[in-house]
Amino acid sequence: xxxxxxEGAQGPHHASxxxxxxxxxxxxxxxxxxxxxxxxVNFDIQTGEVHTLLGENGAGKSTLAxxxxxxxxxxxxxxxxxxxxxxxxxxRAGLQHGIAMVHQHFRxxxxxTVAENVVLGSRDLSFKLNRxxxxxxxxxxxxxxxLPVDPTATVGDLSVGQRQRVEIVKALYQGAEILLxxxxxxxxxPAEVEKLFENVHAMTQTGKSVVFxxxxxxxxxxxxxxxTVLRNGCVTGHVASKGQADAKELARLMVGRDxxxxxxxxxxxxxxxxxxxxxxxxxxxxxxxLSNISFxxxxxxxxGIAGVAGNGQRELADVIAGLLSPTSGTISxxxxxxxxxxxxxxxxxxxxxxxxDRLGVGLVPSMSILDNLLLTRDRNIVVDRASVMPEAxxxxxxxxxxxxxxxxxxxxxxxxNAQKVLLARELSGGRTATKLLVVCSPTRGxxxxxIETVRRLLDDARSAGQAILLISEDLDEIMSLADRVLVIYRxxxxxxxxxxxxxxxxxGAAMAGLTQGSA
Amino acid sequence: xxxxxxxLMTGDSVALATTLILAALGxxxxxxxxxxxxxxxxxxxTSAISSFIAADSSGSVWIGLIVGSLAxxxxxxxxxxxxxxxxxxxxxxxxxxxIFGTGLANYLGKPYEGKTxxxxxxxxxxxxxTDIPLLGPILFxxxxxTYLAVLAAVVSSLYLFRTRPGLEVRATGDDPATVDAQGLMxxxxxxxxxxxxxxxxxxxxxxxxxxxxxxxxQAATTNGVGWIALxxxxxASWRPIRLVIGAVSFGFTLQLPYTLxxxxxxxxxxxxxxxxxYVATLISxxxxxxxxxxxxxxxxxxxxxxxxxxxx
Lengths: 519, 312
Ligand SMILES: Nc1ncnc2c1ncn2[C@@H]1O[C@H](COP(=O)(O)OP(=O)(O)O)[C@@H](O)[C@H]1O
Ligand SMILES: [Mg+2]
Known about the structure:
The complex is a heterodimer of chains A (519) and B (312). Chain A has 519 residues and is of the alpha/beta class. Chain A folds into 3 domains: 21-254, P-loop containing nucleotide triphosphate hydrolases (Rossmann fold, 3-Layer(aba) Sandwich); 260-350 and 433-519, P-loop containing nucleotide triphosphate hydrolases (Rossmann fold), CATH 3.40.50.300; 367-431, no CATH class. In chain A, 32% of the residues lie in helices and 25% in strands. In chain A, the strands form 4 sheets. A 6-stranded mixed beta sheet of chain A has the order 6-7-8-3-9-10, sandwiched between helices. In chain A, strands 16-17-18-13-19-20 form a 6-stranded mixed beta sheet, sandwiched between helices. Chain B is built from 13 helices and no strands. Helices cover 71% and strands 0% of the residues of chain B. The longest helix of chain B is centred in the first third of the chain and has 28 residues, at 5-32. Chain B starts with a helix and ends in a 15-residue tail after the last helix. Chain A binds chain B through residues 32-33, 66, 70-72, 90-95, 101, 103, 107-112, 116, 119-121, 125-129, and chain B through 162-168, 170-171, 174-175, 177-184, 301, 309, 311-312. Bound molecules: adenosine-5'-diphosphate and magnesium ion.
């Protein structure tokens, strides 16, 4: 944890008490059906500072930011800009007050050029578009803050990091004085995060204010001048940190108790090969989605696949699960060939699969927990619910699933509980005992308590001798669970290292495509 | 002078293409904003009979054209309310509009069945220009709306790709959430273009009635042109200039069987030739209804998908 990123900072220090408050929210309340997303939240941001909103998934960070930029309307509370009460009925009103938000899911038109995206919706745009002038203007704004973007590039062709830059340039072009960055690092590889921090720094130096939203403790401690912690919609603490907040303390505020997500590795020696992948290639719509993938996973071993989203992880999982047929290459599970034999054959060979898309691929949203469990059980013509009922009740209990019983509809479960149902179904075995478990982003969107549970369940499965393939974009998760880490980049495995000794820098660089071969 | 049947035929193709251009241009604007209006055929019929009645009773073609266009906008307004305001399924709403528009037109047209219209839109004359061999009758013997339609396509292209509102409507069709986050009103934009699209379709329907047809013959008046227009938008990849080219080729194929018959060229059965434009239409409508394929064709990404701001 260095403070070098802050060396040149000249933004007024909060401790001086003299910094003008640029934006203040007082007593904000926001309800969604069944959820109190923000409960009497106070938050303020001073000119030229980085103020972080820290909190678990679902803590209410995005909701608060959305109200500050005019996208959502608070049910109660006031918002003041430079001490003056303001109304923000729409994002346009927010922009008029110099407030802009960069959303977690980018708001960019893929088919437009960078410049077109940046100027879209701008009020002082003339009726007739002069592309050259617009390109120059956009490039000028980008250069001011050291954000290299090509105004004529098509956004659909850009990397995630570049798109984020376009979003920031857009906000700045529209005259934003206060930027709300919603989990900007979630989609970035470590090197891109560094670059983003430099940009943030350049912005605060010119008197812009940045609200930085995150749930990653390490980076929060580094970038923030101040931190406000949210939990279940309530503010649980304000920490004045100026680059050195105590991560432990932040974690406690965020979760409400001390947590331990210490690394766990295989405790038993690994056994025979369970999954064998040989030279798998996959071409979809003329694009090489997977190229020359070969690796094995053994009994009692967990192999982690790290990579930035969209580098072929989902397709790899689907190929193993028999949902996609590889263009060439072979897959075998437990010594038997499963290539091209479809999902049922793969399951009969002992595969259990926890897909990334819980409610789309994993569970049938409109069916009950019980019926969802039945999907992988006996395939009789007549559905025998009664025989599975005891097991369903037991699993709900064992996995601490918050539901009104086995008849609870999957769609009505929270993200964490839906994930537990899915894990319960897959880990408890179907018609065949599970030999190979493929899990994708198992803890995404879960709170830390649930994350602990899921990790423990995976570790237990490993100890029980199952071979586990963990595919996740959460690098921390992979680094602290996997016995072996593979990095996937543009559909190829570009790096391999033991989990115990894996270096964050090397893995991060490989995720960004900066290395070839393996370590 | 103009007795070369092939020259006449090309001239007629351009003329037939007018309805197609206008109807398809209306659909194009609607779809560029993200609204799929399958009701073109119904809109055309309603505007055709409205323009017939207005022109016949007022004795003015111009009043006929205006009333017909407004009738088109009105009918599209129903779709706008259902599809944009109430966020109904746009395919269902569009198909309902076909049935409603056809029924309404037949009802309004009952007293006029088979009756010939007293006034007619006449071709402009350009004096000696018309006498240029071949090109003369093709280019310089059309009525004003035909010229207007071609001009409208060119202007539309400039509008869509070179102006601020054009940028905004394209963005709305592709990615309404982004437009919304910019503080632009997605539903206002969509309603505006749905109405405008209906107006342009209505002009096409009125023209078909007042310049092309001699009498009102119920659904046979449009004869499926509305469906062809929808297909044309797909063929044109949602681009107005390509749409003109496509419309002329469709006009040509629609025209071909009759010309060949008149020329006594019969080695291809006429029924086959008559089928061609409809088969092409069928194929592209199937393509339009397959979510995966539309993107490659250049369809607006959110075509047919109602927009709901995330806040529930
Ligand atoms: N549009 C919405 N409709 C209903 N509930 C919502 C909506 N947006 C957020 N929520 C709920 O509000 C809570 C806070 O969500 P959010 O602000 O997105 O959290 P965070 O950004 O901190 O992860 C969650 O329980 C979430 O399920
Ligand atoms: Mg969020």
